[in-house]
User: Fold these one by one.
Assistant:
Number 1:
Amino acid sequence: MSGTYLGMPAFPAAAASSTQDARLRGNLRHATHTIRDKRAKAVAELDDWARLRAAGAAVKDRTLRHLDHYLEQLEESVTAAGGQVHWAADAAEANAIVARLVRETGEREVVKVKSMATQETGLNRALAEAGISAYETDLAELIVQLGDDLPSHILVPAIHRNRGEIRDIFREQMARWGRPAPDDLSDAPAALAEAARLHLREKFLTAKVGISGANFMVADTGTLVVVESEGNGRMCLTLPETLISVVGIEKVVPTWQDLEIFLQLLPRSSTAERMNPYTSMWTGTTDGDGPRTFHLVLLDNGRTDTLADTVGRQALRCIRCSACLNVCPVYERAGGHAYGSAYPGPIGAILTPQLRGTASELDASLPYASSLCGACYEVCPVAIDIPEVLVHLRERVVQGGRVTRRGVKTVLKPAKGHAAERAAMRAAGFAFDHPGALRAGQRLAARTRRLHPRRLPGPGRAWTDTRDLPPVPAESFRDWWRRTRGEERAK
Amino acid sequence: MRVALFVTCINDTLYPDTGRAVITLLERLGVEVGFPAEQSCCGQPQFNTGYRHLTEPLVHRFDRAFADYDYVVTPSASCAAMVRDNYPRIAAKAEAEGRAGRELARAAASAVPKTYELTEFLTDVLKVTDVGAYYPHTVTYHPTCHGLRMLGLGDRPRRLLERVRGLELRELPGAEECCGFGGTFAVKNPAVSAAMGADKARAVLETGAEAVCTVDNSCLMHIGGTLRRQGAAARPVHIAEILAATEADAREPSRARATEGSPR
Ligand code: SF4
């Protein structure tokens, strides 16, 4: 990994190599199966889960429909509480704003709470280019950063690593960033956690600037919320003098009462806990308590365009619980890196091609990175019909269609490379709508059945590399029916 | 009660035994079954690959083919799910795009309520679970994704299998996991599809069952093709063929497979 998703191959190629990695598959299988079983138990404890889920979806939908209103309300509340609000249209703008804000403090080092928004914008790299070092303080993000790697899971960015690999990364890389790992570091979880704690403590106590995301923003009070397990976030949110929070505009909820729903849905779906260990909330600034300066950077980066699509917009309900990743059989085999974005798994397959568009080969391949088994929809705590959006986006890839890009309605051309498929689909469509042609095709297949190979050449080869094709029977069902029963009597 | 078989394109072309088994079974239960020849494909492959507009004529065709019937029974959970979940969607989208009037919506609306997957039809309409079948083998059941999650078949297939004399049902580990077929997914993402298929085949073999059965031949083609390539003994069999089997078939195996070559 080179620390960037840019220039990655399309999903099928990336996935083909990761399925060959036995260690990766073992790590992923173990981790996802453990958490999915725990999630199922945590969810089963609530007898009103189905209603909570519907309520979560409804609140998100209503908020998204009036997003302009709630964002303005949020800006007012944050400003009234002593914070400053910045609007970023895209990743580059968000990164530039953050770099400028850090530079204005005179600091060259910042500590970070794990945040999907800054992963999405590639903030760390942009800061590095501006001469600012950003330290990840979440244990898994730290592992990824030390290993010069990329996150591969929303909740557990280092899910693709096992304990032995983590110990090796700590031993080899910690010294480069600060306090080295103890020489005799073992791969026991407690030892690894202790090494990370000592390493990070130095950073917390010296950092003057913290950067975070947020799980929720409450419009009527201007409060931001981060839920986490380790407490590193709380350190970053309280110790530095300046706090900069970069948050996607879809994270707003109208009131604290709405929050109640999500603080039940999120922990049970993500870490399979009844309540997450740390829930930190911050509202502007307060004298003598926490950061003296607070900046909120509101990130669009394709979100209002996504909102313009009536089918695809449901992806913006996502609360990043990662339940869909943990049940996804494709994610389990392909691994998170194959999705080429900060958002892997089923949600990544529908969110990324909407945020980034489908112009690149990788982005155009993502809607096909699913067998449409529906397990993701079943577990999603805000009922995002991921299969529906996948098929919707496939249509956009092969047929083109109307989309909104940077606020302007445009008509997309079909992606390249689907011409043969389109022709085949049309031919099949013709045959299926002309049973005479269909029957002729079946008869031809039956007559030449002894010549049919068990393994195919060309594009079909991939199928027959690992599976045998069924032999063509001597007689189709419709011919058998006609031979034994005659034409269907009219009823 | 006028009942039609919707055999589906894959069964028609590759698995005619399954269609014949449905006829045998329903006629044994006293149901007269018709087979309108204008029927063809439900449109699932086109729809799921992104060619929604190509499915619109097939919605009309489905409606026309089965207009004279009260019930349409199909031995394919995914095709039943296509009709019930997606036909209304196709009609609504076409109307929103100004490409279809009320006709498409009417066609979809008439198709939806009368379309039943076979095991649903048996348990919910005919209200039978003991269909008088005899199948002296160990069998494991894979609940396909569309049967499980889109149609919500629940334990209907199992209830039917449990009443088959001679049959011993073996629990399939990780039963609810997708087998990896997914229509064009198997072609577009062959490595992942094969990895999923291999895991499913391994789970089938772990049960030690002689046969693996499902409510959908497309999944079975994938699982069976994987098992076969591995030279595994377990064989794929559609649930209709189990439910159609009787003691007479067991005494005289040639009767069960009326035509040459069981197509797997
Ligand atoms: S799509 Fe649903 S299940 Fe997946 S991360 Fe988002 S909220 Fe969780």
Number 2:
Amino acid sequence: MFAFIARRLVATLPVLLFVAIFVFMLLRLTPGDPAAVIAGDNATSDQVDAIRAKLGLEEPLHTQFFIWSGKVLAGDFGESFFFKKTVAELIIQRIEPTAMLALCTLLLAVSIAVPLGVLAAAKQGGWVDRLVMGFSVMGFSVPVFVVGYLLIYVFAILPWEIPIPWTGTVLDLGGQWLPVQGYRRISEGFGDFIIRLILPSITLAVIYIALVSRITRASVIETLGEDYIRTARAKGLPARTVLLRHALRNAAVPIITVIGIGIALLIGGVVVTESVYNIPGIGRLTVDAVLARDFPVIQVVILMFSFVYVLINLLIDIAYSFFDPRIRY
Amino acid sequence: MITKSTRRAVVLGAALVAGTLAFGAVAQAQSTLRVVQHGNLTILDPVWTTAYVTRNHGYLIYDTLFAADEKFAIKPQMVDKHEVSADKLTWTFTLRDGLEWHDGQPVKAEDCTASLNRWSKRDPMGQKLFDFVKELKVINDKTFQIVLKEPYGLVLDSLGKPSSNTPFMMPKRIAETDAFQQIKEYVGSGPFIYQTAQSKPGERHVYLKNPKYKPRSEPASGLAGGKVVKVDRVELIEMPDTQTQANALLAGEIDIVEAPPHDLLPVLTKDKSIVLDDWNPLGHVFVIRFNHVVKPFDNPKVRLAALHAINQEDYLKATIGDAKYYKVCGAAFICGTPNGTEKGGEILIKSNFEKSRELLKEAGYDGTPIVLMQSTTLPVLTNTAPVTKALLEQGGFKVDMQSMDWQTVVTRRTKKDPADKGGWNVFHTYSVSADALNPISNSYFVAADGKQWFGWPVDAEMEKLRDAYARETDPVKQKDLAEKVQLRALETGQFGWIGQWYGPGARRSNVTGWLKAPIPVFWNIEKTGK
């Protein structure tokens, strides 16, 4: 197992190198000049040129790349052109909101999606199944920001004052139950921390629930057709035990796989969700950095996302062996 | 009546196991003003950058020697009294009593001269002033002199320049930082103190009321008068998404949105708890900028042809929409201000396509498409380029409108290459009107080789007129010279001013006292109740 993990970790190096070269080239070839942005709107061409030279952007591309990659290998991720902080500092400052949002989303999504998928599989063809699949299609189809704004409108802005017919009275349910935006660190109080994560987590979880519940359903349905399930039923085991202990456990590998793959969705979703809910995390840092052409930040953030993605897939591979003892590395 | 916090607690209770929650919410100051600016504040040196968000940050923590009041008259601010010698060459300034830096040190004359020196290296109006300055002399701790080589008409206008780059006063040790390096310490003598430890760039910037600040005794007016702080704390919250800004304002999570987009104004005005405030009555002005160094706009007749095709109202309708937020105005130096003459400006107000085609024919325009850069990421500018395309095409031009994000526009506009080799011919921008009030502060008029803004016009006659304006000390003659500058720009087709527009801010109704000024300032603002 350890040899496998070591092999896989070493195998990430060429992936990261490829990502580094690709991102570096892409950023340099895309129109846009951080020096012009830094210089400000009233700057003259000479001032822009001076800043470009100071940032090292006048050097040939390969020189810039070797200087940058050498520094990264030495643990120096550089300094943001705009924030005047090291990229490492910026990432450390922004990692908690993103990590917490991702964690809450994963917990929420998995705890809803897997039971929904199992339920749909158990009631295959029935109205529950259709409802779950309908939700799943909707979850895939509606963009994350639309879900976000709708949830904000319903739970954070709309006053829930419902007129009661024929009585002339209004039932005031309050409304505005949840905050529209912002993030509070756990250190600032757990209540404030969690209440601000509810809507963003639901927003981000919708697409994830859609994906995982669909795969869970398909996988459990496939397993339910296996001979050992028929045997289990023939032995007189209760339907719930057959479903949860035999079918679900054996359907776990594709479900775990899709949870891993879904991390990519989560990363994409975080970028949008953090903007909609004004969460100062890595996603918003990425957007701000891209808009400002803050090359050092974009490069490191994308490298980091790639590394996280590779790492999570490694963890998923390791998890297979726990659910299916036949898998050995 | 169920309060919002109770409702939220109920939701929490339902969502989580009771007892696991420790509502250790951070205690908030009683009166915290939460403000969302029009952009992210990333650079904290208002002399180093012209970014308006940084200028606004500057007004919170720094003070100025002079400041413009609501009617744009320059009034003393840190200065107690000033004298001008009979030959108009020596200006003596005495500082007010009791001025103190945030670190407890007294403000001294040497701090002010160091600050002016640094500012003069970055700001065009400062550079112009310092062309006339023979020396800055510290007389004593509270008095300094500006000694000129020859009389200069804009000494006070320069020291009281309202917008970027504003001559903010800093302690000498900070002001001695190279003007092309950013300062690393944010100590001012202004009405608020910046809280470096509590501020997180990209999230929020925190300012506390300066308890030792001594406001002037005059009532606050524009950027002048007594800067009386009525809140304990100001938080500039970074919130780039405009829809989220509107939502947060509606939900009462923030108190002020400096510049909500025009399309969200009807949504905000529907809510009784929101008030729109026209804090910047001068507004902004759209600009069309030609590239003078490449064909075909290297030919003044072609530039004039383009100006003849223009009509301001088309731009304003397409970008702003509601007529109460725009003004058709032929004055380059802004209607309603001392230099705001509309003479000659009529060519920008009504299209004359026939004249445009005639001028193009005279110029020998060969029909090569001109490259028009369209920014798609600054909402207020997005619709300007399609209007230009339509108008110029009616005027006989062929137009290749290329869409790109604003950062690409700001990069590409630095290129002097021909348009078909990565350069450009024409693009749009806008400016805060306060930056455009005279021929010296309005950088679009600069036509001296090497000192011009993008587009690079060179016109010795224009520079002669600008110099004459700078030297003139009589306001009547200054106005006459400003008019000549405007007419010269229209004669050569240097650039076009294509309409004034206004963007009100939005505030919660419990927030009052937002002063009318070209800059959003947060003294005088009071916040009561919820």
